[in-house]
Amino acid sequence: MPDSDGHITSGIILVVEDNIPFGELVAGTLREEGYQCYTASSGAAALAWLATHPASLVLLDYTLPDMTGEAFIAAMNAQGSQVPFVVVTGRDDSNLAVQMIKHGASDFVVKDTALLDRLPVVVSRTLQEAQVKQRLQQAEQALSQSELRLSRAQRIARIGSWEWSLQTNELYFSPELFSILGYTKATPQVSPEWLYQQVNPADIPVVRKALAVTIESGRCLDLTFRIATCSGDEIVVASQAELELDTAGRPELLVGTLLDVTDRTKAEQEIHHLANYDALTGLPNRNLMHDRLQQAIVQSVRMQGSVGVLLLDLDRFKGVNESLGHKAGDQLLRTVAERLRVCVRESDTLARVGGDEFVVVLSIVADEDGVSSAASKILAIISEPFVIEEQELYLTASIGVAVYPTDGADVHTLLKHADLAMYQAKDMDRNNFQFFSSDLNVKVMERMVLESSLRRALERDEFELFYQAQVDVVERSIIGFEALLRWRHPDLGMISPDKFIPLAEETGLILSIGEWVIRTACRQAKSWQDAGLPPIRMAVNLSGKQFRTKLDQVVASILLETGLGASWLELELTESILMRNAAENQQLLQALSGMGCSLSIDDFGTGYSSLAYLKNFPLGRLKIDRSFVRDIITNPDDRAIAKIIIDMAHTLKMEVTAEGVEDHDQLELLKSYGCREIQGFLFSKPLAAAAAEALLRNGIKF
Ligand code: C2E
Ligand code: MG
Ligand code: MG
After folding, report:
1. What structural domains and CATH numbers belong to the chain?
2. Does the pLDDT of residue 22 top 70, yes or no?
3. Is the distance from the beta carbon of residue 464 to the nearest atom of ligand 1 less than 6 Å?
4. Above 90 in pLDDT, residue 103?
5. How many A from CA of 538 to the centre of ligand 2?
6. Whose Cα sits closest to atom 25 in ligand 1?
7. pLDDT tens digit string along 603-615?
8. Strands 655-658 and 677-678
9. pLDDT, average across residues 330-341
């Protein structure tokens, strides 16, 4: 323990002295100072004691009976003892003193009369020095351990460190940094010049600038750049550094770390790529297209130009997928992408934004003509034949165009309007492009809303059949009902079939809807029969789409299911349906007629079919279109047409029904021409099932 003067007055001291009384005298003196003292009278005894006891200091008599001082020190070292020692000798010999100090002695005292007085000071000082030395050793050890740990951590984390002396322009790399750069054996002489030779030339300005900023401002350096490795490969590294100033406040040293971030950068790039590019075609995706369009808008504001947005949708691509498989579909999309690439300029953006949807952003176009010619070019290049899996395919596309700033001020509006225009192009029989116009907006929006709710109408049970009576004016009785479809839209109310049947046909929904109509109408007719009401014929309208499927099977199974006799079911078709696939229809109509169903031609007179031609089909009835009936009184042409239809139908032994009869004059005229079946508001509007039933029960009065 050091006392208040800093003297150390505790410790274990071994006095090695063959003169036992003198040894005891020395020990006694030191004990009085507070030390624990032991004595040994020979070198061997002292070494034995030291081997088993802790000691703070050895006082060593230079001349021992069994060994010299040097020999004793050598033995002590061999034992691994680190105990400091002070040599005591009878001779005042400075050579010996130097020699002993060289051997590691802490001090040297002569056995003279002043010895006992001096000894405590020497002992205390030696112990003090030993303590300082020990602390220093511990600190050094701790430091080297922590350095070891740091360098191990850096090695594991693959962090290299470097120092750049700004005053001498010397550069130092840690071994780990060399290893990051791939130098495993011989390491090059590094210098700033050497470093710049390794950095990717494109990154040199960035590196220089970052260093200059750090040196000037003292701000931390934080920098990522590409650098060549020993093998010539390139890696991406991130470096951070701090500036150290000298005592005069001048920049002296840059101390930094360096990390290989190649993998991380690659992963980041991959993520970026995934987020912004389409995997199939490698084109920008919707995400990136949005950004590019935004940039193009900003740029065009500056340059006072326009931006063209072309939304392209391949026509009937679904069919390719369905008939040739998705692999072929994918290949086709890639080829389309390749062709489109050729059409766009470097500054434009071509993106794939959906299954078969592409967007071309034409940045800075002078006028609409520029956009038109780009769209024409695209249509032309798409219409050239494709060869996919050794098959030649023909494809067309519909393009909707919106132009900034006329058709929208922002990305969202422009894309929405291009989309609407594209729908318009599809409507115009595809393979064309349409510019957005604002009336389009309303029309197409309505249609889109309708389409999405139509898809859900069946499952939500929103359809209903109304029934319009067909009256035999001679018998004065209801002989039939025509089932007319109604859609009770939850928001839009009752929607008439003219509005949604075309859409149902286009989307293919007509198949399931049409089947529902036949089933519901048959079930209704049967239930009226079962209720004992006069049996009537039930007429159902058919769409052309339904005609192409196995309609005969559908009808047969519905008749079976509902129990309605086939002769009570009449199917109404239009002339155009009939003419479109005459040969196929012939078979289908024969099958239906063979089952016992009756067939009629609806809206007759509006198509181009000749009555003679119609004779080839097993048709039982013609329905004179409403348009001739409407003006039959005032328009002699309509009157003549109506009369001819009625006469010819009779010649061909077909029945005739006049539609749309609203007043008695019309009725009387038609009756006078020999038409006995009448359908129209005069007798009844189309009615909901309950009202139609009441009408049937009570009969028609006129
Ligand atoms: P359509 O088959 O010619 O049906 C007759 C249409 O004329 C009905 O219109 C009916 O309400 C209307 N009408 C009947 N009498 C008069 C009259 O005296 N004056 C006037 N102004 N109109 C009269 P609705 O119900 O709107 O049906 C329109 C068309 O929708 C139908 O014409 C038919 O082509 C089609 N349609 C109706 N239901 C179905 C269906 O279930 N499937 C298919 N594919 N088409 C249907
Ligand atoms: Mg009809
Ligand atoms: Mg009609």
Report:
1. 12-136 (3.40.50.2300), 157-266 (3.30.450.20), 285-436 (3.30.70.270), 458-698 (3.20.20.450)
2. yes
3. no
4. no
5. 11
6. 484
7. 888 766 666 667 7
8. parallel
9. 94
